[in-house]
Amino acid sequence: MSIIEAQGLHKAFDDGTVAVDRVDFEVAEGEVFGFLGRNGAGKTTTVRILTTLTRATSGQARVLGLDVVKHRSEVRDRIGLSLQQAALDPLMTGREHLQLIASLRRMRPARRTERMEELLTGFGLTEVADRLVATYTVGMRRRLDATLALLHGPQLLFLDEPTTGLDPQSRRALWSFVRTYRQSGGTVFLTTQYLDEADELCDRIAILDKGAVAVIDTPQDLKKGIGGKVLTLPATPEAREPAASVVGETACRFTDGVLQIDLPAGDDVLPSLLKRLHDSGIPLTGVTVTDPTIEEVFIRLTGEGLERRTQSDGSVAAAALARTVGTGRGGV
Ligand SMILES: Nc1ncnc2c1ncn2[C@@H]1O[C@H](COP(=O)(O)OP(=O)(O)OP(=O)(O)O)[C@@H](O)[C@H]1O
Ligand SMILES: [Mg+2]
C-alpha cells in the first residue's frame, strides 16, 4: 500500500520561484524513502506540502490515504515531523517541550509520562531534560526535535535533513534509530544531502534536481544502471584535457585533486585504457577502480556533485526506540 502519493505536485512562490516542479512519486508502507538533492532543490518545500504546512500551487498529495488539503488535521495527528529548522524555544527546557506537545496531542497523562521517559532515555536526553534548550548542543537539539516528532507514536515520520550538523558518531546513531523504527513497521520520508546516507539507509531514493525528480529507484539499481566501474587517480587539473581526449568529454571529471573516469562495462577495457592514458602523459600512480557510488549516479543525472556542508559538533544521538510505532493516532 502507498502511504504517500504525490501527483503532479507543483509549488511556485509569489516571486516566481518554482520550488517543486510537477513531481510524481509514491512511498510504500514500511520503506525508508530518501529525497536527495542539493541546496534549493525543493526538498523542504515538498516536505512542507506533504505535512500540510504549505499548499501546493497545483497537483495532489495523499498521506496515509488522506488528502493533505482536505484532511489537514487528521494528517497532522497521524504523522511525525522533524523539520530542518527545529522550532524549539531556547527559554524552555527539553521536558517542557515534551509536555507542551503531549498537551497539544491530547495524550492521556499516564501514557504521556511513560512515553516521555522512554524517549528521553532512548535519545540520551535524561540528564539534560531539565536544562534550557539554549544550553543544548546542535546534536541535543536535533535529538529533542526527534523525540517531539515521535511522542504520539506516529506510523509515518518525516525527517528533513536529520543529520546535517551532526558529527559522524551522532549520524550513525540516527541511522540506527531510523533502521529500528522501520523494522518495527514505521515508514520514513527522509531528505538528505549526504549521498552515503541515502545509500546506507534508504530502500529507494528520489534524486531531485531543480524541483523536478530526475530518477527514483533503489540504491542498488541506480548504481547498476550507470553501468561500468569508475577509475580514480590523483592528478592535477591539467590532466583533464588529455584524459578527455582519450575517453571523451563526458566520461571524465576533475574534482578535489582527483581525476575520475567512467569505465565502459567489461573487464577487458582497463589495460588498453591505462596504456592510452599513460601514452598521453598522465601519471598513473595511485589508480583505483571501484564500483559506482550514488555520488556518481547523482553527478551523471544532474551534471555536478553535491555541495558538502561542514559538519559542526554535536553529541551522541538517538538510541534506537523500537516501540515508537504502532499507536498511529493522535489523542492516545
Ligand atoms: N517562502 C519562499 N519564498 C520564495 N522562495 C522560496 C521560499 N521558500 C523556499 N523558496 C525557494 O524554493 C527553492 C526550494 O527551496 P527548499 O527550501 O525547498 O530547498 P531544499 O532542497 O530544502 O534546500 P536546502 O538543502 O538548502 O534545505 C529555493 O530556490 C528556495 O530559495
Ligand atoms: Mg531544506
From TrEMBL:
<dbReference type="InterPro" id="IPR025302">
    <property type="entry name" value="DrrA1/2-like_C"/>
</dbReference>
<feature type="domain" description="ABC transporter">
    <location>
        <begin position="4"/>
        <end position="235"/>
    </location>
</feature>
<dbReference type="InterPro" id="IPR027417">
    <property type="entry name" value="P-loop_NTPase"/>
</dbReference>
<dbReference type="InterPro" id="IPR050763">
    <property type="entry name" value="ABC_transporter_ATP-binding"/>
</dbReference>
<dbReference type="GO" id="GO:0046677">
    <property type="term" value="P:response to antibiotic"/>
</dbReference>
<keyword id="KW-0813">Transport</keyword>
<dbReference type="GO" id="GO:0016887">
    <property type="term" value="F:ATP hydrolysis activity"/>
</dbReference>
<dbReference type="GO" id="GO:0005886">
    <property type="term" value="C:plasma membrane"/>
</dbReference>
<dbReference type="Pfam" id="PF13732">
    <property type="entry name" value="DrrA1-3_C"/>
</dbReference>
<dbReference type="GO" id="GO:0005524">
    <property type="term" value="F:ATP binding"/>
</dbReference>
<keyword id="KW-0067">ATP-binding</keyword>
<dbReference type="Pfam" id="PF00005">
    <property type="entry name" value="ABC_tran"/>
</dbReference>
<dbReference type="InterPro" id="IPR003439">
    <property type="entry name" value="ABC_transporter-like_ATP-bd"/>
</dbReference>
<protein>
    <submittedName>
        <fullName>ATP-binding cassette domain-containing protein</fullName>
    </submittedName>
</protein>
<keyword id="KW-0046">Antibiotic resistance</keyword>
<comment type="similarity">
    <text>Belongs to the ABC transporter superfamily.</text>
</comment>
<dbReference type="InterPro" id="IPR003593">
    <property type="entry name" value="AAA+_ATPase"/>
</dbReference>
<keyword id="KW-0547">Nucleotide-binding</keyword>
